[in-house]
Queue: 4 jobs
Job 1
Amino acid sequence: MAKLSLMFENKLVKEVPIGSRPVTIGRSPDNDLPVDNLAVSNYHARVYFEAGRLVVEDLDSLNGTFVNDLRVERATLHDGDSIWVGKHHIKVDATADAAIPWDTGRKTAAPKINETMVLDTKVRREMIQQAAAMGERAQFSAGRMKVATLVILSGNIDTKEFTLTNKLTVIGKSPMATVRLKGWFKPKMAAQINQRDDGYYLGTGDKVPRVNGTPITGTVRLNDGDLIEICGVRMNFIFRE
Amino acid sequence: MQIVSSGLSDVGRVRTNNEDSFRIVEALNLFILSDGMGGEAHGEVASAMAVDVINKYCESEKEDSGATVLDEVPANISSQTRRLKNAVAQANFQIFQSAQKNPEQRGMGATITALWLKDTLLSIAHVGDSRAYLLRNGNLQQLTNDHSLVAEQVRRGLITPQQAEESEMQSVLLRALGAHPEVEIDVDEVEIIPRDVLLLCSDGLTRMVTEPEIAGALQAEMVPSAAAERLIALANENGGIDNITVIVVRFEDDANKGWFSWMRRGSAKKD
């Protein structure tokens, strides 16, 4: 059975097996692994099995939970890993449960690499799974499709609403432009919106647009409800369901 | 719009061979940069093949159906961008096949960053950790995401950008051409305006030279060939641990329209 060993300066403080119930770690004495250190939050982290994998989850602790050297919110654990909370660390012994062979880049790549290399498919797939397990904090939940929309609030534009289905949306006088500006002194390309994997980004063109009253520098990620102002046109960026 | 471009490649100060390849196809306004990997001389083979296949694919007269190489066809990109994406998919497949046929080439691969301009629409296709930057209004923006392990860790908030810079795993790529018969290709589009400057570069530049230094060099040297030389010199001064390759592209207003756009821009400032 997998077990966790709480260590302080290489001395064993306490050892607990991991069963079906999560193992809790924290400063409060009612934790399975109480850690008496002010740097540790009352309920700091917990370790449990999920779909055959051992997972550590930080419980919004003040000073963070680290697996080896990486600060994590949630991470899959492997035999030999160390979980650090404050100055204590917890050794992970998963030998008896090593059902899933794990060959992370992290371990194989330990010696210094100068040659560029590509992780093989298997490792990558597992990395992606691990990443997926790291909390579904994605902006776009799979549930309902959200459609990004520009709603024109004021300004000289005929269409009142634009659905941003393309990768690139140009705001300007250019024939390319989706949001067509009218008027003599309007630039061909005033600004542009790019659809990327993780959201929509507004970038400058010949003009610097304002988002919620502040001029942008470079590109900024748009949030639901943002007010965009450019060339006398005011519009709302919203997600429609 | 007038387009001036220049590319330069340097072996650096540590390595003995140059595995980077680049090509500027002026007739098409196509800019391709690739960084090869895989021991012996095979990195060079892979990067040269990537550049060549993409050039030929974009040059060929035939209209592509869009679905020849890729399983899914996203409808939200222009046909030009789709074509560039297909060209990259083709390059990936040919490198993969070559490595399968020739056992000594096993494990060779390459990054790719390809930019293609038609009128004012710039198509971007990208795999790996070479980069494309856009300098606009004094602001340097990275147009591509690195497909490296450390970059992915930073994106997921697992490590800080500082930790990434110090990491010993900077060379571990999550995607590259030639590793598998299919590869996920990032594409993007940007509308180009006069006075924009584009930079394509291999990681030999970005690991040695910071972004503010890059922006400074691009702003200080208005002539692309001079900017390219300066960037390579900076990377070598800072150590030059890898091959360094850069392509600098500068866009200018057409000269004969100068007075009018000057007048228009002067007025437009006020609104």
Job 2
Amino acid sequence: MTEPVVQADALRKAFGAFAAVDGISFSVRRGECFGILGPNGAGKTSTIRMIYGFSPLSGGSLHVLGQDVTRRRQLRKVKYRIGVCQQDNNLDPELSILQNLEVFASYFDVPRPEAKARALDLLKFIALENRKDTPIPELSGGLMRRVVLARALINEPDLLILDEPTTGLDPQSRHQIWERLEGLRARGITILLTTHYMEEASRLCDRLIIMDHGKILVEGRPQDLIREHAGRDIIEVSEPGEEIRSFVRDSNLRHDDLGHRLLIYCDARDQLYREVSGRYCRDGCTLRTATLEDVFLKLTGRELRE
Amino acid sequence: MPVISSRFLRIWHRNFAVYRKTWKVSFMPPLLEPLLYLAAFGLGMSALVGDVSWRNQSASYIVFIAPALLSVNMMYNSFFETTYGSYVRMYYQKTFDAMMATPLFLEEIITGEIIWGATKSVIASSIMLTIISLFGLIRYPEGLLLIPLSFLAGFAFASIGMYFTAAVRNIDLFNLPIFLFITPMFLFGGTFFPLDTLPGWAQALAWFLPLTHLVEITRAIAIGPLDGFALWNLLYLALFSALFFPLALIKMRKRLIK
């Protein structure tokens, strides 16, 4: 087996007494898309900031592309070989799209003619080749996001790190980004992404971890996690009455009572659904496939985060 | 302190690329400001003031203040670049964050910004020097020394500016160093009147200000005599650089690396 692209062991990041990342271990394999999921403040961004060398470690060890990132010289090597798409659209607003890519290429010591060729290629990849001279402030949020993605690829990285790549985008823009990322995945580039969109994670990630309070709650492939933690299907009952509640309790069904809604996790779908909808449903009852979101909410709770 | 590689030049190039986009606007102040000052002081104040005595020689008021205007220009262009300019890039545009996700380290980014601030001083001073020289207010060839001087002075004031950028909590707080540090220098740094007209204690205070020393050198170059004293002035400016450049790096590291 080849060595992992990212290997974290008992990784810790503390801000004063607060442990943002509290001793997590995981590894990202070559060529896979690995997701870090979690509610706000779970420690996702702190984790990847350590990976791309923005934040020093508070403890544990972290190897990226075989290099120890706590050593400055090795970190520099890592920095040459990764592409990072941060949460902010931090493009240079005074420069055109093309210039943004060219300037960024210079940080990686890419020679000028080569930088221009790569930039034009990437503009094609993000379908903006006809707008290379457009000033950044004229772009919509979705287009800026695509430029940030292109910029992260200018050094032809071995590892692409994406921090919430589609947060705040409209559905069209989000799908645009997803298609690009799937294209990159097909080319075999290793991707590490954080997100709190479960749809994004199920669609893109080969494996993922769900974090909360700086710790890893679960790790696995999306489908396995769903099967293990939420079952195959879910019956959602709106405004459940006392009868359904006692039925669920008496039949020992796995469920979550949310007050105005009742979720029943089940594998034997049709028979149970017919029984529930026929006998107990007052305001509506739906049978749906269990999703990663069910797993996520089950594990991290439903209360609001800061 | 970590070794700073020549990669800081990339930051300089980036800022220069942006400058080339906006140069038409950036060119105007150093081009027009000296004309305004010369008109106000040359036509207006000179009649009231007459000649000024500096280092036992008499100079017309306009010859006396022209080097001071140049010095102030060096200070302003570098200081404002690494305060407001750098702060906008650091805080609002998150440019530094993007750069830190590349092979660049923070020290290289900040060094590039400070060198760029010094460059802004050179550009502005060269323009202003050209205009002032057209009026015969600078002697040559000594006057050419003002160009390298504008870089050294720019480096000192850009380092001080960067220190404040690392220290202030929000952009409005720059008013404080401007009010307490920059404006007093502008007024009392031997700019508009000879220092020896001030009481002894005020003179002593003025000699602590870096601009006072810069004005001294500029005047020594522009009017003469250029003697050993200018070396002391230069040393004082170098001292400021040697102090504030590392301080700016340390303070920035504390602010941004989390």
Job 3
Amino acid sequence: MNISDEELLNFIDGNSSSSEKKKIENILENDSDLKERVNMFSKSESIIKSSLKSSPSRNFTALVMNRVAAIKNPYHKGGIAIWILTLISVIACSYFLTDMTFNVNLDFISKYIPEIPMLKAPTEIKVDQPLNMLIISKVLLYGMLFIALMLLDKTVLRPYFKNRHMTHH
Amino acid sequence: MTVNQLTDEEVIDKILGGNADSFSILVDRYKDHSFTLAYNVIKDEKEAEDIAQEAFIKAYKNLKRFNRESKFSTWLYRITFNTALTANKKKKKYSSTSFDDSAIELTDSTRNELEYAEKRRFILQALDQLNEQDNVALTLFYLKELSLEEICEVTGMSLSTLKVRLHRARKRMAVVLNDLLKGEVLNL
């Protein structure tokens, strides 16, 4: 029975179906020509596999990494830009927030809306008093600082220490 | 977890996160296959090393564009293959010939030198008779790193073409090696 080279290669690769495998194994028991063909294929395959792989010079990785180091890290720009922008916004916001207070004058109510006795505000509430925004501004400022520190940690400090850790290990 | 246990995806995430040194893990992991691939196209160790280096640098610069639909190795080998092809065209030394039946002369002295280097030389001689695509397909097949579908991605062949070519090339390689070494190396 003729077995094609393709069938033989599939058999050597272990890709034959169970029926094909059994068929070839049965023939192999009595067919010395087929045995020789299988032998030729399997030995040549193993020689090629063992001899084909080659390695570059020992300092290959170092050479590549030197070239990588010479390239400005393209994946670092974003983090630094975010950090700088955050810093500028924090400085700007803290300046504006700490330097201003709001004067809320509610006189316009009586000016534009007719006074309704039923809804007249009790006299003890002084609505025309300036409302100091100090507390709110401080909350906002500390919030911004917290976010800025988080960003600083994520974009600058963590990559830096990870990098240092990788270098030492 | 040591750095060697990291998957390619995790290493890529580290690099994209700003840790450029992590790229050395990928270089160490794939330098042999990349170099072998380049060498089988360009046939010169020094140039193959330059091409493999160039391929790694290209991969590093374009890492953000790597869409992760395929394996990193498949993507890298495609870069290596294309870089080697471009270098080969520049050299204009390589003539793209398909398999022919010309025999390779075997002298008496080579018959007595059946050491690794010699075997390798014979194999490369036999591989020389393949065109670039067949050569790379066969190399990747024997390196056992990529599936047939991934080899198609690297070489740009269809799956059916690849199967036919691989079958033909493997058969031819067995015959050429058998003829070259007159059965001696096969008995080692």
Job 4
Amino acid sequence: MSKLRVLIGTRKGAFLATSDASRKQWKVEGPHFAGWEVYHLKGSPVDPDRLYASQSSGWFGQVMQRSNDGGKTWEAVGNQFGYEGAVGTHAWYDGSPHPYEFKRVWHLEPSLDDPDTVYAGVEDAAMFKTTDGGQAWSELPTLRTQESAPGWAPGAGGLCLHTILIDPSNHDRMFAAISSAGVFRTDDAGKSWRPRNHGLHSLYIPDPDAEVGHCVHRIAMHPTRPNVLFMQKHWDVNRSDDGGDTWHEVSGNLPSDFGFVIDVHANEPETIYVIPIQSDSLHYVAEGKLRVYRSRTGGNEWEALTKGLPQKDCYVNVLRDAMAVDALDPCGVYFGTSGGQVYASANAGDSWAPIVRDLPPVVSVEVQTLS
Amino acid sequence: MIKVVLPANLRTLAGLGSVVELDVAAPITQRSVLDVLEENHPALRGTIRDMETKKRRPMIRFFACEEDWSDASPDTALPEEVVSGKEPFLIIGAIAGG
């Protein structure tokens, strides 16, 4: 019988929650790395007991952690992230040049075929790779050194590379998303990258249709259809049917198309989930109601999912790495809030229940389906 | 033996108690103490000072004998009380964040 393990990163440590396939009773343990910000944890799809975690602190910098036993024990591994060659500058909030400075690892994406290989998306925006289980990290520098990079400007959260997707049918093709630069694609395992933002429209930049400069918050794909991508942009939910070459808006009837998370149902590639946030200045859900919106048509037509979620006096946010889906049927959907709640649905979003209610603010949620 | 006191988050990270004792060869300086500390406890590399430049992280302070040594040259000899082990070398996370 399958088991589930939810990996929860918070502002003050990491937590793991486990359940059987019923997904009704959860055992929560932690905090690991107490007192530290844990932006992301993720397990290897090849060896699910091999976990990686990004642990950071404004005082003490970046620490990387690895577990070989599913999170029972951890060891600190390499934490040296040096940019390759000339460091260069990006645009600061006021438009002035600002030197690239490594601040933290936002996102970890383990390789699909080697537990020792992991990609890391960092702030200031760059991608790093380890091939020895996290001991040594080296930059894939052509992403940061491309022509447009000196003009990239940080979003409110920093100039972060926050999403990495690997095409399951062609591991040399990867997508990276940067706030606020946009989506970039490599077709040669990171040797070269091209911006892939045609069709995006952002009113908060001088040229709304610019090739780069879009504040992409999250992209997602279904593993069986890697050419179809879904995006939650700062404002607007978008879709691409050609591997990011072109995008079109599918916000449809959402009450707000601002938000952070987006994810795809494990068994229905046209079923997607977002959590609308009222606005970029408010950063909490609209009308005091925590509502997940589901589209079964790949966008445009959305339904509110509210059963089990607070529908009054709720003013939480859900950050970009804080939603995940499991691989069971019916599909489980999970998300964590800035109020420290982690909610799970064992029926594709029809109803929800909290796994845990009172954690520190949740930054990331991943789920592993274990056999 | 040189006694070093770490902030709580670094004790947890390295699995150490409140006071770390180090056998450091002379001269006893910030640099030599931190070199041995990081050699003995590799998890601390990069958390107190930059791994390449060895520059103190901005929100870390060094105190000894009721004096702030944070901005002293890392090669300045530390006080005799620290060298003799009578007083600890304090590594402090700056008070910030409310």
